Sequence to fold (115 residues):
Amino acid sequence: MSEELKEEISAAFQFLSKQNSKELIIIDRISTNQQNYDRHFTTTSQLKFKLKFFGVRISGGIAMLEGENQYFEFRTDSIIEITRLDNSINLTIRIREDVYRQLEITIKPVIELDD
Fold:
């Protein structure tokens, strides 16, 4: 893992740690083709919950996103690509040589109403 990738991961995780009480939408895709996440190569699931806690366990390199009734984990030491755009983070994780996981974590913006 390059130093640049480590810095990008650290910045993304710092951003996530400040998102408590905000609603997350996680789209989790697992594919046998790193370049193609269409329905023929991919298993997809989606979670939606309010974030109560975000943390990273050093032993095992596991990131944890915890909500009221949801708990979601992913490996951090297998991340091969990460991008962050405003309120979303996209991660590509190599599970095995021929299996890839793509996570899209989006923070729903809080809309404040004027009086």
Notes: The radius of gyration is 15 Å. Residues 3-107 form a domain with the Protein Yojf; Chain: A; fold (CATH 2.70.180.10).
